[in-house]
Prior knowledge:
The protein has helices spanning 2-8, 30-37, 52-64, 82-92, 126-141; strands spanning 19-24, 42-48, 70-74, 97-100. It is of the alpha/beta class. Strand 2, helix 3 (52-64) and strand 3 (70-74) form a beta-alpha-beta unit. Helix 1 packs across helix 2 (30-37) and helix 4 packs across helix 5. The longest helix has 16 residues, at 126-141. The termini are far apart.
Amino acid sequence: VDTVGYHLSVLKNLFPTGINVLSLFSGIGGAEVALHRLGIPLKNVVSVELSETSRTIVQSWWEQTNQQGNLIHIADVQEVTAQKLAQWVDSFGGFDLVVGGSPCNNLAGRNYVSRDGLEGKHSSLFYDYFRILDVVKSLMSQQ
Length: 143
């Protein structure tokens, strides 16, 4: 969280009244925690994470830290469509930050069985990150 916070610290002066975040492959909310620790209010966070346990952890952290913004959970990144992104952009004016790290199960670590690269079942979700980023950039350019 501290390393993420270091990289996100440049945002502190840019968003003193809060930030809208699209968090892809959120995990346990490292980016959200880092932004909170930097004192950047979280106005709207769309958190996309497959793991129910991780989503529960993010929800619990959200409640325990008395976040005042909106937290929207989406389980499957492939359910994030252009239509849903357009609805969110219309609803709260767009995203100030898109953050995330796609699964690397098929790329590294101790997985010696199925290192299928970006064609692997999990690691191929990398392409969804850029699919979504392209849609967000297009929608934001229309704002």
